[in-house]
Amino acid sequence: MANTTNPREKIRVLLLENIHPLARTMFEAEGFEVEALSSALSGNQLKEMIREIHILGIRSKTQITADDLANAKNLLAIGAFCIGTNHIALDAAKKLGIAIFNAPFGNTRSVAEMMIAEIIMLSRQLGDRTSEMHRKIWKKVSSGCNEVRGKTLGIIGYGNIGTQVSTLAESMGMRVIFYDIIPKLPRGNAKVFSTLEHVLQESDFVTLHVPATTLTHMMIGHAQLKMMKKGSYLINASRGTVVDIAALAEALKSKHLSGAAIDVFPDEPESNTDDFQNALQGLSNVILTPHVGGATEEAQSNIGEEVPTSLIRFVKTGSTTRSVNFPEIDLPPTNETHRILNVHQNVPGVLRDVNRIISDLGANIEAQTLATDPDIGYLIFDTDKAVSAEVKKAIESLTASIRTRILY
């Protein structure tokens, strides 16, 4: 349509970090122009590449700073093809009117299955045995090797992944306890505990499934490891900043812990390398993996569909359902209207001013919805086609407006 701010055939998409090809297929089916690269970008190269694009797709290696976003004048949305979004300047994006979407469900099963596999591997010392066999060492032992049935699994963070781990662990006869800062309904016979410390003290195995925040930064350090039962195990597939690696290495060397499985690290290479170093290397009964919890074909395919679905809905309808930095709203389409989207500072009187603009132009609002957070308001409304361009121009001139566009 002539008045559309961003016609679909002119929407430019950049996909980084070898995102599943299904994403490209979905975007191209909508008529978008797509460029896909296998690597992450940073610095001036990133700034230059995102200058003219409308949608950016990344995984966990690309760091998006406020400075990067300030350079991306046309950027409407970012899709994080992963769960975590701590590598994106979320607040800066919000204040520029850029919506961020992630994939909270796509790799849930893959990560949960790996947690169960690692619980069994640690309990049976299978990592050490297979390493020994590759070095031509035959060492058949049963001392320190146990079944997991009847053991207690403590889950820290009872979200999408934590609850899946809970279900799988219980099906193997494990007792499941958990802690989360948000009240959660237990699955099966799992028991909720009121403190992190209580879970650490009671568990034979502890798995971590929390985001990277100021509250979770180094949440497992010397003090917390000492609280854990002697001979217990720690598993982390959440974020590398959650565990103090030096403290964990000390707990393992002293034999206070019998093993650990770590999939995420405070500092991770941006690409594959043969020179990765970590204090846990060489310790017995320690499983180290290169951030592969969600690295299955099924998970990447799921994510390759989940994130584009959210982004396409945003481009086509303005829906911010599942956005991690915008108020979540959705408005069904109406016939014979133009839809206008407005992001503005959350100050009093904006909706009044918008409605007055429309009224003064003799137009009508067919449908409207507004949601706010402490920083911004996000408004979607459908109005008469004949005056939509004038309405957009007038709303853009409001002091509080951040971004206004005609969707269709």
Summarize the entry for a quick read.
This protein has 408 residues and is of the alpha/beta class.
Give your account of this protein's structure.
This protein is of the alpha/beta class and 408 residues long. It folds into three domains: 129 residues, 3-Layer(aba) Sandwich (Rossmann fold), CATH 3.40.50.720; 181 residues, NAD(P)-binding Rossmann-like Domain (Rossmann fold, 3-Layer(aba) Sandwich); 82 residues, ACT domain (Alpha-Beta Plaits), CATH 3.30.70. Helix content is 31%, strand content 19%. The protein has 13 helices and 16 strands. The protein has a seven-stranded parallel β-sheet, with helices on both faces. Helix 9 links the parallel strand 9 and strand 10. The radius of gyration is 25 Å and the shape is elongated. It starts with 11 loop residues before the first strand and ends with a strand.
Q: Walk across the major sheet and give the strand order.
A: 8-7-6-9-10-11-12
Radius of gyration: 25 Å
How many separate domains?
3
CATH architectural designation of the largest domain: 3-Layer(aba) Sandwich
Low-confidence segments, given as residue ranges, are none
CATH topology of the largest domain: Rossmann fold
